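look at this record:
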Amino acid sequence: MQCGRPLLLRQPFAPDAFDQVILGCVNVIADEMNPARVAALRLGMGEAMTAFTVQINCGSGMQSIDTAYRTIREGVSDLILAGGAEALSHAPLVYSRSAVGWYGRLFGARTVGARLAAFASVRPSFFKPVIGLERGLTDPITDLNMGQTAELVSHLFHITRRQADEYAAESQQRLAAAQKNGHFKGEMEPAFARDGTLYDHDDGVRPDSTADSLAKLKPAFERPWGKVTPGNSSQITDGASWVILASEDAVQKHGLTPKAVIVDSEWSALDPSIMGLGPVYCSTALLKRHNLALGDIELWELNEAFAAQVLGCIAAWEDDEFCRDALGLDGAAGRIARDRLNVDGGAVGVGHPVGASGNRIVLHLVNAMKRLGHKRGIATECIGGGQGGAMLIEAI
């Protein structure tokens, strides 16, 4: 709500002028099973406002934009509020199946004897819950958690621990500089805690990060030789993001000034164990369809799930064999220059609220393109479960 209200207050039309609301969210809490509808009502958009929630893991926030864009393109709607939200701090604790079975027997018992039998079968392990987020970040097909998939990508493309730490430190420093220079002004809204405490900037940034300081941290998933650490991974955090999509008719009707046009989007799938390479597959397919080369894209937002994963994607595009065998290209696609990639840092510093990140990187890409005078950009992300999403944007 804290980012939606300022956005709607800035518009020259009433909140109920929208045709629908679409929100990406992964860890939906039991109290708000359709958060899109809850958000629409709390934002004062009216009881008649239809709203639905979409979920494709890390791509959910981008999926909301993609669904809205296609709905408008087909002439079904003219004005849509699309967003993403995640409260990872509210991720539930989950009991084991055996514990749930025991609770079922206990509360289903109809006689004193049955209740005593249920009590007699209790085990101490029943009262040890599992962190739901830990299970949610573990792929059920490969039984690898997301950090382990990043380790595999780093192994396949020979990404070193030093390279991952250097990338993470640079991302932190870019984010700090962007905050200092006001690059998030009008994009990130101040937030208020329940006790009235004001948070006027994202506090996940660690501007004093260096490759040497990050090198002191232990691997998080594959000790002792792993490359993925808490310092070169995205932070677990809360967050939300909204964007407004409008047809040409809506732009004229309400006197709006559009920032950019969505040209196209693409979703791809791959082996879940190397899900971090998802951006390579979907972005390459997008480029092929529009007869574009890697170098034709002036600005990239590639979600920083893990530093090693981002570097793995860059290395994959530079690898002749991979590009021929996996992407169907004649050879290496080329290199993405670092001054075109995540120019204001990314999820290593600002965090990765899973359902919101895809929305945020599209929004920031649009604003960064406008600030830097670039015409064409791609926002892309890897998606847990072995998928990737990409969106081709052109500035107006």
About this structure: The mean pLDDT is 94.
